[in-house]
Amino acid sequence: MPVDIQSPSLCIGIVGTGAMGRGIAQIAAQAGIRVLLFDALHGAATSARETVIATLGKLAEKGKISAEALAAASAKLEVVPKLDAMASAQVVVEAIVENLDVKKALFQQLEDIIAADCILATNTSSLSVTSIAAACKRPERVGGFHFFNPVPLMKIVEVIDGLVTAPWVSEALLALGRRMGHTAVGARDTPGFIVNHAGRGFVTEALRVLGESVAEFHEIDRIMREAAGFRMGPFELLDLTGLDVSQPVMESIYNQYYQEPRYRPSAIAAQRLAGGLLGRKTGRGFYAYANGTAAAMPVASVPAGKPASVWISQTHPEWAEVLRDIVAAAGVTVEIDHDPGPEALCIVTPLGGDATTSCLMQGLDPQRTVAIDGLFGLAAGTTKRRTLMTTPLTTAAMRDAAHALFAVDGTAVSVIRDSAGFVAQRIVACIVNIGCDIAQQRVASPADIDRAVSLGLGYPRGPLAFGDALGARNVLAVLENMQQFYGDPRYRPSPWLKRRALLGVSLLTEET
Ligand SMILES: NC(=O)c1ccc[n+]([C@@H]2O[C@H](COP(=O)([O-])OP(=O)(O)OC[C@H]3O[C@@H](n4cnc5c(N)ncnc54)[C@H](O)[C@@H]3O)[C@@H](O)[C@H]2O)c1
Question: Which keywords does this Swiss-Prot/TrEMBL entry list (predicted)?
Fold first, then answer.
């Protein structure tokens, strides 16, 4: 490798010292790397250096780093007045404005300055590394080096291979990312790379669920947090990121993949963006904020009373068994081995289907049928929230009786309107399916996809491990049933998922 990344005298240049450039400078300096800081805006690099040193000073005050480490890292940060100074760098990382022509012009200029073996790295999140490299005389030394904001806390970097990036360049960037204390994953140059591509399922499907009036946004958030285990609900995430940031990303990736239905953005988000309801930053997004805190949303009270008896569908015997225990523990008669009695509440357990179809296929009375989502755990202690779903004809009395019954052991209950795949089944199935398709396209190795998504998006698991935990066959069934119900190619299963589910192997299985 022409560049010795482990060398104590390694020197990197950072061009563009805004939010990202500063973060990269901080972790590089903390790793003992000499950092040259340049920004086109007069004074910006100096102010970036001061900010980084102040941040390191706070870490030292809190005892997170030693006084020696503070002094050593601070001494590594050098502001340079001209781009010419990049002649001493072995790697130059650009973190300037996200504009293809400006980035191309910068790399062309740098090519006349830098050493023969110097690597040119771009922190772009939405532009093609191959296109940026195409402007260079030596495009093989250009690679993507995609960090996340805030860099010191988001301990992941994607190293992107353009079509002609030389292997030694990506190896060097992977080693540099690791030397800076981050998990470095390799990816091919494709729209959204790994993390921004994998992130398309969560929010776009949640917006579809909202668009179908299946549940209120805050109920969808509760289900995704307390049943599916996400740290944040999709609407809380949209409010945090701001629609001015997330809607253009949704549209850009959708269009870069030539209107791939899996990534289809939502008219709901477009309208809210146009209306200025951006999220926390404007004080109002899906939630209203006062002093940075979201207004509390209503919680439906648990109705009184219980059903006279409960008939439980046997379509998923393992779930039926848990349901029987819950119902019996509540002191309610369980009907299992015969048709439902005339008063019985009928419980069905669809997988990717809706309550109505499930009810009619089993010859049940839609007025007395309620569906429950079994995929994310049913027993108290295995889930914090159970999701119940009514048919359009379920009576209020039956709905309330089911709500009371499944809340009796203290587990929270969400009651939603009919939806093929409830809320969590359909959102998680979309996440797993997109993760599988990223693997199918060989954008990155299955293990790196999961690592990047867990660290970059903070999901409870990477998409492939999530699919394994739910059962690849279950996820396939959810998608196939949704595709049949909606007739929308958005839900067509990825070949990666289909083959591994049929073979009964882990979604992390690579081909030999
Ligand atoms: N902010 C994020 O969350 C994030 C995450 C990942 C990647 N990125 C990418 O990182 C890059 C920088 O983003 P940011 O949020 O730090 O932007 P920023 O606006 O905070 O900083 C950009 C800096 O670059 C300087 N600059 C602009 N044009 C220049 C030029 N031609 N030469 C030298 N300096 C120039 C500006 O003066 C500014 O200081 C973009 O490509 C962006 O897409 C951003």
Answer: Oxidoreductase
103-134: b (≥16 Cβ within 10 Å) or e: bbebbeebbebbeeebbbbbbbbbbbbbbbbe
The three-state secondary structure class of 94 is: strand
Of 294, 324, 357, which residue is a domain's last? 294
Residue found by looking up tokens 């993949």 in the block: 257
Residue pLDDT, tens place only, 100-137: 999 999 999 999 999 999 999 999 999 999 999 999 99
**Region 311-319 average pLDDT:** 96
Please check whether residue 437 lies inside any domain of the structure.
no
Secondary structure string (H, E, C) spanning 335-397: ECCCCCCCCCEEEECCCCCCHHHHHHHCCCCCCCEEEECCCCCCCECCECEEEEEECCCCCHH
**Distance from Cα 20 to the centre of ligand 1, integer Å:** 6
Q: Check if 353 has its Cβ closer than 6 Å to any atom of ligand 1.
A: no
| Residues 270, 397: Cα–Cα separation, whole Å | 38
**Total structural domains within the chain:** 3
Q: Give the domain extent around 162.
A: 11-189
Residues 288 and 224 in one domain: yes
Identity (one letter) of the amino acid at 195? V
Tokens representing 331 are 């002191």
The residue whose two tokens read 């007069």 is 42
Name the nearest CA neighbour of 120 among 164, 80, 150, 82.
164
Query: CATH code at 394?
Result: 3.40.50.720
* 139 secondary structure, DSSP code: G
Q: What is the pLDDT of residues 341-364, one digit of tens each?
A: 999 999 999 999 999 999 999 999
Helix H or strand E encompassing 293? strand 293-294
Pick from 15, 20, 36, 83 the residue to mutate for probing ligand 1's pocket: most ligand atoms within 8 Å of its CB.
20
Phi and psi based region of residue 423 (left: phi greater than 0; alpha: psi -120 to 50; beta: remaining) = alpha
Q: Identify whether 94 is a catalytic site residue.
A: no
CB contact at 8 A, 497 and 433: yes
Q: Are the beta carbons of 92 and 116 closer than 8 angstroms?
A: no
Query: From atom 6 of ligand 1, which residue's Cα is the shortest distance away?
Result: 148
Please give the helix or strand (H or E) that residue 496 lies within, else none. helix 495-503
**Domain shared by 242 and 322, yes or no:** no
Task: Name residues whose C-beta falls within 8 Å of residue 61's C-beta, 6 or more positions apart in sequence.
Answer: none
- Which residue, 263, 282, 202, 158, is CA-closest to 461? 202
